[in-house]
Amino acid sequence: MDTADWNASAYHRVSVPQTAWGREVVERLQLRGGETVLDAGCGTGKLTRLVAERLPQGRVIALDASADMLDGARKELASFGTRVRFVQASLPKLPLVEKVDAILSTATLHWVLDHPAVFAAFRAATRPGGQLEFQCGGAANLHRLHTRAEALAQSAEYRDAFVGWTEPWCLASAEETAAQLQAAGWTRVRCWLEPRPTAFADDAAFADFIGHVNLRPFLARLDSGRAQRFTAALVAAAAADRPPYVLDYVRLNASAWAPPEGAA
Length: 264
Ligand SMILES: C[S@@+](CC[C@H](N)C(=O)[O-])C[C@H]1O[C@@H](n2cnc3c(N)ncnc32)[C@H](O)[C@@H]1O
Known about the structure:
This protein has helices spanning 8-14, 16-28, 46-53, 67-76, 115-124, 143-153, 174-183, 203-212, 216-219, 224-239, and strands spanning 36-40, 59-64, 84-88, 100-106, 126-137, 187-195, 198-199, 246-247, 250-257. By secondary structure, it is an alpha/beta fold. The chain folds into 2 domains: 1-138 and 173-197 and 249-264, 3-Layer(aba) Sandwich (Rossmann fold), CATH 3.40.50.150; 142-168 and 200-247. The strands form 2 sheets. Strands 3-2-1-4-5-9-6 form a 7-stranded mixed beta sheet, with helices on both faces. Helix 6 crosses helix 10 (224-239). It is globular, with a radius of gyration of 19 Å. The mean pLDDT is 97. Bound molecules: S-adenosylmethionine.
C-alpha cells in the first residue's frame, strides 16, 4: 500500500495532469444515470464529481486509504448529499456491503503492489455485466525520475535513510495486466500503455509537483532540511534536460467487463 502521507490540499492544487488523464477514463464509463459506481482511490474527489454528475438517479462510493484525501473529497462532493458515500479502506481490501455496476480507478493502482488481489476484489464487488475502467502508472512510468531519485538515495549523503528501501510502486505491462484481469474472471479485456510526457513551466512548478506527488515515498524518510536538498538536486537535474522540467509519465489503461448473468 501507499504508506507515505498525501497532503490533500496540495494534491488538489497540483493534480492538473492526473485530472486531465482521469477525465478520459470517466468518459469511457458506459452509464445510463441510475447506476452505482465505485471510485477506487478517489483522492480529493475532482473526478468523482464528474462521475456523480453523470448519475442523477445513481450513487457513487468514494473510496480511499487516506483520511486527509477523504476529508477533501467530503468537502468537494458535499452538494451531492447522500448520493455519495465515503469509505476509508486500503486496497486490495474492499469492504463493500453491496455490489456495484461499475468501478473506476485513476492514478491509484500503481501504489497497490498486489494487482491480482485487487482485480479479484474488484470482480467480487461487481454485478454481472458490470464495467471496470482504470488508468495508473505502467511499465517505464517515470523511469528517468525514478532512476535519478534511487541513485541519489543510495549516495553517501542519503543512504543511511534508505536502508531496506524497496520500490513502493507496481508498474505493470499491458500484457501481464490483461492476463491478471482474465485470471480474475474479467472478460472483454483491453489493456494499453500510453506515454504522457508532462512539462512544467519552471523550477518552482516542477519542485512543487514532484515534492507533493512523485517523491513522497523518498521524502517521507528525510527530515525537512535533507528533503529540501534531495528535491533541489532532482530539480537541478531536470533543469539540465532538453527540454527541461519534463516528467516521463507512461500510463497503463484497462477496460474490462464482468461476465453477464448466466455466463459460464
Ligand atoms: C495520485 S492520487 C489519485 C487520486 C484521484 N483518483 C485522481 O486521479 O486525481 C492516488 C490516491 O490513491 C490513494 N491510495 C493509494 N494507495 C491506496 C490503497 N492501497 N487503497 C486505497 N487508496 C489508495 C491515495 O490515498 C490517493 O488518494
